[in-house]
What does this fold into?
Amino acid sequence: MSIYNLVEIAGKSGIIKGIQPNLLEPNAWSNGANVRMRHGSVYSDPGFVTISSTPYSAYRLLQFTDADYNIGYIYMGDTQVGIYIYGQNYDITRSASNYGGTALTQWTADLFGGLPILNNGVDVPQVWLNPTISSPLEDLPNWPSGDRVKVLKTFGNYLVGLNFTISGQVKPFDVRWSQSADPGTVPASWNIADPTIDAGEYPMSSTGGELIDMLPLGNHNIICRKNAVWGMSLVGFPYIFSFNRLPMPFGILSMNCVCEFLNRHFVVTNADIIQHDGNSWQSLVEGKMRTWIFKNLDRDSLQYCFVQRNSAAKEIWFFFRRTVSGAQTGRKVPNTAFIWNWEDNTTSLILDRIQGTSHAIDYLYSTDTNYQSFDDTTGSFDSQTGDLESDDTPKRRRLILLNSEQKELQYADDFVEL
It folds into this structure.
């Protein structure tokens, strides 16, 4: 006669591949795929729902909200940029020419005082100064025409760049920032030699490797290098910013491998996945999934790895390419997602069903097709059948995904009801 032991709280520990199965607690899983853990339960992952097709393969997303609070998604391909808004796709590529991106190009994208700032490291950074579908992107005004930068993002009232090429000379350890600017405007100057303005430069030493990415944490801008982490803080004239190396013995795996949650940073390093508050840090996968992840990580695909917070489910997803057998064609975009739930401290995996996912963002999306504004209504108030606009608009946070192989915008069909 078979004997069955009832396992309570089956999702308490999640999937743990760092311990021999016979040594695991009864409510830990030695293997699994396409499941999620929440509040002690195990759920089959609901998968992804198509929002819209995209006219070409794209590799970076940025959410944008227009003056009437319509939400759109800007997507960036190698040579073109488009936006999905008002239920349609529109091309907003600059009018002068297409962009010079290739398979080696990585876009960065941010909002600066409400204006989208896009940069691919090959062309002059782009700005959407007049964000309407009839107006294309344009070269960032006042940008030094011969300069290029790998990373360009917002910190307060400044645009900050990392890893410059100045007149053909590569400066992988340089930090430069613009003159400060008011919301809705772009910086008037990048002239670091003018002592009357607050634009400036900080050339870091080569110790710690090239500058890879940055993300604010509280009042500090955290700069991630290959093997080190630095803090950048506003101090005012004459230095404008101060810089100091943080007491953490790691760097970052690749661009886009850091995100913020609960006033902390989640970071994928070269050999671990950690969280830190700028002073202390903690591994999230040691003894759980660390060895499996970094053993299976395709090291030729690092530029396509990225992390993203999924606020609705209190999760962070690390998208990466798991090494697979056989000849590979095309770009090595992710085929695997490691998921960490920060509320329950559980780990889970989604495997090949995310094949082709090139980027994701954690923003608002509505699936309510009956929603209508007061301006769109006709007839009497009593005759209305849709959900009229109110302070409680039918939008919620979702994980919005960009799939470059399927050429689609998608959202995660979460099991979490808010």
